What we know:
The protein has helices at 2-17, 33-45, 50-62, 69-91, 101-114, 116-129, 138-164, 172-194, 203-236, 246-300, 308-312; strands at 21-23, 26-28. The protein has 321 residues and is mainly α. The chain has one domain. Keywords: Cell membrane, Membrane, Transmembrane, Transmembrane helix. Residues 296-321 are annotated as: Disordered. Residues 1-275 form the MASE1 domain. One of its GO terms (cellular component) is plasma membrane.
Amino acid sequence: MSLAVAVCYYAAGRLGLMGRLVVEDVVATPIWPPTGVAVAALLLLGARVWPGIALGSFLVITSLTAPGPTTVVTVVSNTVAPLCAFLLLRRAGFRRDMARLRDGLSLVFLGGFGAMLISATAGVGLQVAKGSLDKSEFWPVWLAWWVGDTMGVLLVAPLLLVLAGPAGRFRVRRWKEAAFLGLTTLVLMPMAVLSPMSMLFLVFPLLIWAALRFQLAGSMLCALFASVLTTFEATSGRGAFLHLTDVEIMAKLQAFNGSAALTALLLSSVITEQRATRRSVRRACQELAEVLEHLAAGESSPGPPGTAESRAAPPGGHRDL
């Protein structure tokens, strides 16, 4: 099982490196999918798969540079950060189906914003300690690293958790709507991203539509597609990122990816929780109606022999005086 996690981590890392940017002469990834793979694997399989995370991280690092003493620190930080996210989420009562708003908030603030401070601080601090990065460049690079790891958790982990969960009923009418939403997304999102007029805001109605109608699965697929497409356009400096500096590109891209991820994740969690509440209320009303029917049937039925009513009116309709 750990070997499978390592393979998935490495594959996700190679995909993430395809959309890298340069910030202060340091390579950064706006979305780092391995963190999402690691957190999802821990939530699904337990803490016993941490060796797979460590091995996957080591393979990604050695594919970029020769291993050295600093590789150990990077591998440890990349392993400890998802483990801390897993432990924090478990302590907060996180549910993998993410059917409550508190689950979405826990993933954002504990699994994403909080735990990924470890990997970002250790990774950039190591660069400063060994002299490959100036102290004045610490915060821009740290922010890019932290946001990239966080986006991996917010965009990849929920989608993997949904795909690993039980599949619900999907009517033919919903398939038609899903196909129409997918077609609209494939047409509208490239227009919004490729346009030099900076029309990225057109993505958010699609995210809201997907969250309202298809909850987490639809909204996270839509958000991930938008973020990946926008990241590749940002790396090429085209469309909405034309004529911007490297720092401006990273800032704009991070703001968009973060807004898309939070909108999709939190809105879908709210909708899922509301639907679950309505189903619970509906079941409670049905049970109450059944209880009232039984009570009403018991009151209208004739009493058994020997009751007060039968003694009050014996056969013949006469009473002894």
